[in-house]
Design brief:
The structure holds two protein chains of two kinds. By secondary structure, chain A is mainly alpha-helical. Chain A contains eight helices and two strands; from the N terminus they run βαααααααβα. In chain A, 67% of the residues lie in helices and 5% in strands. A two-stranded antiparallel sheet of chain A has the order 1-2. Chain B is an alpha+beta fold. The radius of gyration of chain B is 29 Å and the shape is globular. In chain B, the strands form five sheets. In chain B, strands 5, 6, 9, 10, 11, 13, 15, 16 and 17 form a nine-stranded mixed beta sheet that branches. In chain B, strand 7 and strand 8 form a beta hairpin. Chain B has a domain of 260 residues. The chains are: A mainly alpha, B alpha+beta. Chain A: One of its GO terms (cellular component) is plasma membrane.
Amino acid sequence: MAERLVKIYPPFERFWHWGQVLLVIVMTFTGFRLYGIHEWIPYDQAVLVHTYAALLLMLLWIFAIFWHFTTGTWKHYMPTSNGLFQVMRFYSYGIFKGEKHPYRKAYWRKHNPLQAMAYLALKLAIFPTIWITGIAYLTYRLWEPAAGSGFWIEIVGNLHVLAAFGILSFIVMHLYLMTTGHSIWKHVRPMFTGYDDIVLSPEEEAYLEADEPHRIKPAE
Amino acid sequence: MISKHSLFAVGLTLALAGAGAALAQETTAPPGDSSGSTVDHSKLEALQKDFATGPEVTAACLSCHTEAAAQVKESIHWSWDYEHPETGQDLGKNNVVNSYCVAVAANEPRCTSCHVGYGWDDMNQPPPASETAVDCLVCHDKTDTYAKIPAGAGKPFGKEIKEGAKTNMGTPAQPVDLMKVAQSVGQPDRDNCGNCHFYGGGGDNVKHGDLSSAMHNPTEDVDIHMASDGLNFTCNECHVSDKHQWHGSRYNVTAKDTAGAPLPGQRHDVATCESCHDTEPHDSLTLIGFKLNSHRDKIACQTCHIPEYAKGGVPTKTVWDWSTAGKKNDEGKPFKVAGYETAGGKKKPTYDSMKGDFQWGEDLQPEYFWFDGQVEYANAEREIDPSGVVEVNMISGSQDDEKSRIWPFKVMRGKQPYDTERNRLLYPHLFGPGSDTAYWGKWDWDKAFEAGAAASGTEYSGSYDFVSTEMYWPITHMVAPSKDAVQCEECHKENGRLANIAGIHIPGANPMGPGGKLGALILLLTLGGVVIHAIMRFFGRKNMKEQ
C-alpha cells in the first residue's frame, strides 16, 4: 500500500466548484437584499445581478449534470450505509479523542459515506428547490392569471428563501469541516491542483501507472 | 448732426424692440392655432357684432356650427347626469354628494357657474331647453378674458365690473368684450378646461389634488405631458372628444386598459396611459423593463409614475370638518383663520365660520387601493352606518378580478352632516344671499337642511349630527418625469408604499416570513452545532496533550 498523489478533481469539476462559489456568494448577497435583510445596494441592481447570476448558475448546472452522467461521476454520490456508522461515530466522538478518520479516500470514490449523503441531499433536494422556485419566480407573469396564484407565489417565495438558508447552512458546515484535518490547505489544495493524497493498493497503483499515467504523479 | 452715441442708442432700442416683439409673439401665440384651422373667426360676418349676452353669441356660433349645441346637450358637461352602466346608480353632479360643499341642490347659482350653459338655476328642472343656452365661449375662448360670475348660474361678467368682483379662479374680474371673445375662438387649451376643473370644491386644487392652477403652465417636474416648456399637451390630447363627448370618466374608469395603442394611423379614443404608451411600455428586452412590464398587470401606471400629487406649490384640501362651522368671533361676526402656509409661503385657511375646520397638504404621497374603475356614491337613496367612518363614494376592486389594478388615490377626510333618524347624508342649503334658509348668513343648520331636502327632493327628519367621512379621488394627472418615478425599494421594503394592501406578495416587504424564520433557525442551529463541536475538539486535544 502506497500513498500517492492522484488526480481526483478534473479541470471541469474544479471550474464547476469555484464557479458555484462565486455565483452562490453573489446570489446570497443580492438575494438577501431582495428579501429585505440588508439595503446595501439599490433594489433594481440587486434584481439585475441576482437574475443574471441565476441564469449563469443554471447554465453551469446544465453542464455539470451532463458531465456527471457522461463521465459516470454521479456514482460517487450513491448513498451507502457501508462505513456510515464509523464516520458518524468519528465526527461525534472519535474526533474529540484524536482518533484517525475511519474513511480512506479511494480514487474511484472520493467522498466518505456521510459526505456523499450530504452532497446528494444538496443536489437532489436543496438545489432543485431553489432553482424550481427561482424559475417560478422569474416566470410569475406567465402563471399569475391562474387561480390561486397569489397563494402559490407565497409558497414559492418562502421555499426559495428556506432553500437559500439551507445552502448557507451547508456552506457553514463545508467550511468548518475544512478545519478538521491536518491543515486547511491540505483540504483546499485538491480543489486547486486536482491532486489529492490517495492510498492505493499495489494493483490500483499498477493500473494507474500503466493505463492512466496522467492521473498519478510520479512517486518521489 | 447725429452723434455716434445716439446712433448706437437708436440701434439698441430697435434691436431690443425687435427682440421684444419676437418674444411677445412666441408667448402670446394661442395654442389653439396649432389646430390648423382654416377659419379666422375675426373675419366672419356673423361675429362682427356688439354682443350683449352669451346666448346672442351662441346663436351666432350656431349659424355655422349647426349641430354643436345639440352635441353639447348630449354630454355630461351639459346634463350633469350620468346613469352608471354597471350599477344603474344615478351619478353626475346633479345627483352625487361629496365631502366638500356636499351637493349642488339648493345652491345652484353658485355651483352652476361652472355649468357649460347659461341660466340653470334649479336642479329639479333639466338645464334650460333653448339651444342658445349652451355656452360655447367658456371652452373655446382664446383671449383668456372670458369668465363667469361665480354666483351667476353660468352668466359671464359684462363690460362693467363691480368693485372687488372676483372670478371662480380667485383672480380680479376683468370686463368681458363678447365680440372680441367670439372672434378669438379655437380649440380648448388648458386654461379653458382648467378655469373650472382646477378650482373644483370652491377653490384652487381644493377637490382633486392633481388638478390645480399649477397646471395652467406646469413645469416638467409637475406634469411631464402638459409642461409648457415641454410636450405642452392640452387636456384634449388625452381626453379626446368626438362630437363634444369626452373620454375619461371618474365614475366608470378604465382601470386596466388591455387594448393598448391603436394601429398606426388610427386615432386613439380613450384617455388611458396605454392608449398612447401601449400595454408593454417599458423596454421588454432589458430585464428591468421586462419586470416593470409584468408589474403593469396589477399596478396602474399612475401608481409608480405619480409619486406625489398637489405639486407645483398649490396645496390641496385634505380634511374638511363641517361640525365646527358657525363659530363667531368676539364681535359676533364669522371669521377665518389662515393657519396653513405652503413651502412657498402661500397662506390657506384652516378655519372658516362658513365651512368649519380644514387641513391642507402639498407634495402628498397618494394612498393605494385595488380599483376596478367602479364608483358608487352614498347619495340620498343609500342608508349609511354612522357608527363608523362613512364612505361618501365607494370604490370597488380586488386582487382576484381581471379588471382591477392598484391605483393611487387622494383620500379626502372630514365630518359632514347626516340625518340621525334616517341615517342618510344631508344636503345643506349653503349659498343664497338674502335667503331665509341659507346657512351662510342665517347660521341655522335645521333651516339649511330643510331647504336642502326640499330642493333635492329628499327628506329631513329634523335631527342631525356630523359623521366622519372619507372620499376617494383617483390620482391620474401630474405624471412625473420618468427619473422621478417611484423606485423599486419604495414598495419592496417593510412598511413601504403598498403596506396597507393585504394579501399580495411583495418581495422584500416581509423580511423574515415563515420560510425565512425556519431557514434562519436552521442556519443558527448549524452555526451553534459547529461552535460546540469546535469547543469540544479544543478541549479534547487539550486533554490528550495533558495525558
